[in-house]
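Progress narrative, work stream C.
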Amino acid sequence: MWTVVYIASNRAQAEMLKNLLDREGILANTRPAGISMLGDGIHEILVLESEADEAHAILCQHAVK
């Protein structure tokens, strides 16, 4: 089962975060989730439910840098 771990503000950010997770060995996908006021719309970052905690930790570590 796929689980949303982050909502990116645009497609470029979603792809960057997906690639980060992929490099860390986490299988990730993105999907459009709506329209943002800034352009191409928000996108969800999804991972397998079994890897959600690890993916969230990776994303949090990345945000601190």
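Work stream C, second folded protein:
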Amino acid sequence: MTHTARRIGRTLALVLPVVLVLSGTLAVTSVPWAGTSSQTQMLASSADVSVRAKPRAAQDVLREKLLTELQGRKKDPGAVLTSLQQAVEQRPSLAKHCMDIARAIGRAAVKLYGPVGAQSHARPVCDTSYASGVAEQAQS
């Protein structure tokens, strides 16, 4: 008799958790969530859930910040280039992106100040990439 009872106990120990999980899952998916509606709502499928935004790279955040400061005329191109230099000194990992950012600042400065005005703010930041951005924008 103890052998039979032990077998029944083992079977219940294996089957009961599976039954409880399945019945709980089915119960949750058919619960009326809110309101007086008589319709039951189903849980959102994975297709209905919005995708989480990817974190932006530090160089993209820095570029956007500096261009916003320049375009909002909060800072002149020289001050923006100084901010770029300080950011690169604080985070050396940004050094490989410095030339691209400085070139973008140069292009934006030409749109705001014209080629001569933009060139007057040149600084020796990132191998004169700012001047190269000014020249590129002035030619186009």
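Residues 70 and 76 are 6 Å apart (CA to CA). No further action is required on this item.
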